[in-house]
């Protein structure tokens, strides 16, 4: 058996759900993976010319069992003529390569982000097993014709695959609206990597910190209010900067570049609390942030805005405080920072939310002819 995986993120990006999925698949089935890198699926914008190219902090070289391919594509997929040009001029060789790979063994096709190349491959290969793993509300990232095109494409894809899973309850509900059965497979963490970072939580941490991409969903005003309310505490914002702060930052806010994942976990472990300052809007309504799991797996309390799946986490986890205005919630934040985190709680959290346990949920719908799913 083998896996062809259409990824929503580059392989050499910060390790997250797509990379974790293919590692899980390889470990479970001792099978090779053909990883298809993402390509532009929307119309270009002027702002794209100003986007930074952050230094990679991700996976590095691919392992021997994984082959990476990068599609060539014109960024005009929302137009029929753009799709035709891509399919006839730029994708023919790649699709033939995927077809040749699929004939060597039983093939599973997994799609992490809707694209016309993924849909074309699904229709051409007719694989024994196909999966759509929704990790974001992809149409919400787009505007105008690009948004309408992505919504229509996702619907076609959902109707064409055999199995569907979603990272959040909001995504699960939305996909169920297409009349399909959807597995809720939340995000998670690597218990092994979190445990390796535990020793870096020694001492008396003071910094409040965020590690991750700083995009349009990042709430700079919230961060500034927090920093001004606690001027004696450093506030560290670590990651690639796609959405600069709107004004001069308080002096205790430090902007730092992206770190390799293991180094990022060590830095997180040194925080007094982990921050998730996301705006509350349609884009974040479907988000189950990876940061929540890694912060809590490291034993950190979490201070967040009330968005998406964090609303559920905040209602169930005493180590989470949700506040739309940190400056107005001093007593609650002080109590959160003073809350002890027993080592046993941290160990139990890591065991409960490890990626392997997450994706093992999918074994119930793996029905590839001639292939028996491993015992859980």
Characterize this entry briefly.
The chain has helices at residues 17-29, 80-90, 92-102, 116-125, 144-160, 169-176, 191-197, 220-229, 261-269, 290-297, 310-316, 330-338, 343-353, 355-360; strands at 2-6, 33-36, 66-69, 107-111, 129-134, 163-166, 183-184, 208-211, 235-238, 253-256, 273-276, 302-304, 320-322. Helix 4 packs parallel to helix 5 and helix 7 packs across helix 9 (261-269). The mean pLDDT is 90.
Q: How would you describe what is shown here?
A:
It is a single chain. With 376 residues, the chain is α/β, with parallel strands linked by helices. It folds into two domains: 2-187 and 355-365, Rossmann fold (3-Layer(aba) Sandwich); 191-353, Rossmann fold. 36% of the residues lie in helices and 14% in strands. The protein has helices at residues 17-29, 80-90, 92-102, 116-125, 144-160, 169-176, 191-197, 220-229, 261-269, 290-297, 310-316, 330-338, 343-353, 355-360; strands at 2-6, 33-36, 66-69, 107-111, 129-134, 163-166, 183-184, 208-211, 235-238, 253-256, 273-276, 302-304, 320-322. A seven-stranded parallel sheet has the order 3-2-1-4-5-6-7. Strand 11 (273-276), helix 10 and strand 12 form a beta-alpha-beta unit. Helix 3 packs across helix 4, helix 4 (116-125) packs parallel to helix 5 (144-160) and helix 7 (191-197) crosses helix 9. The longest helix is centred in the middle third of the chain and has 17 residues, at 144-160. It starts with a strand and ends in a 16-residue tail after the last helix.
């Amino acid at each position: 058996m083998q896996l062809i995986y259409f990824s929503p993120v580059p392989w050499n990006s910060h390790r997250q759900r797509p990379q974790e999925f293919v590692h899980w698949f390889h470990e479970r089935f001792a099978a090779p993976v053909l990883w298809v890198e993402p390509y532009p699926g929307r119309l270009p914008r002027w702002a794209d010319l100003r986007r930074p190219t952050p230094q990679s902090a991700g996976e590095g070289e691919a392992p021997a069992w994984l082959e990476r391919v990068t599609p060539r594509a014109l960024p005009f997929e929302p137009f029929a003529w753009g799709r035709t040009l891509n399919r006839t001029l730029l994708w023919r060789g790649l699709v033939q390569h995927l077809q040749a790979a699929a004939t060597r063994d039983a093939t599973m096709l997994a799609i992490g982000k809707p694209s016309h190349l993924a849909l074309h491959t699904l229709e051409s290969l007719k694989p024994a097993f196909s999966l759509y793993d929704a990790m974001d509300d992809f149409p919400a990232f787009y505007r105008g014709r690009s948004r309408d095109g992505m919504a229509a494409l996702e619907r076609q894809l959902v109707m064409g695959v055999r199995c569907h899973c979603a990272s959040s309850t909001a995504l699960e509900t939305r996909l169920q609206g297409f009349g399909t059965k959807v597995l809720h497979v939340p995000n998670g963490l690597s218990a092994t990597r979190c445990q390796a970072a535990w020793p870096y939580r020694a001492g008396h941490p003071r910094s409040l910190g965020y590690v991750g991409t700083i995009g349009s969903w990042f709430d700079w005003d919230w961060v500034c209010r927090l920093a001004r309310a606690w001027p004696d505490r450093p506030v560290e914002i670590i990651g690639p900067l796609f959405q600069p702060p709107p004004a001069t930052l308080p002096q205790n806010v430090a902007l730092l570049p992206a770190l390799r994942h293991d180094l990022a976990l060590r830095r997180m472990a040194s925080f007094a609390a982990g921050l998730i300052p996301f705006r509350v809007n349609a884009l974040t309504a479907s988000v189950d942030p990876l940061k929540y799991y890694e912060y809590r797996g490291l034993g950190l309390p979490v201070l967040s805005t009330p968005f998406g799946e964090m609303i559920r986490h905040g209602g169930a986890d005493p180590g989470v405080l949700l506040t739309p205005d940190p400056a107005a919630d001093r007593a609650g934040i002080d109590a959160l920072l003073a809350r002890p985190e027993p080592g046993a709680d941290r160990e139990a959290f890591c065991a409960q939310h490890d990626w392997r346990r997450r994706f093992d949920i999918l074994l119930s719908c793996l029905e590839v002819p001639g292939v028996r799913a491993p015992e859980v």
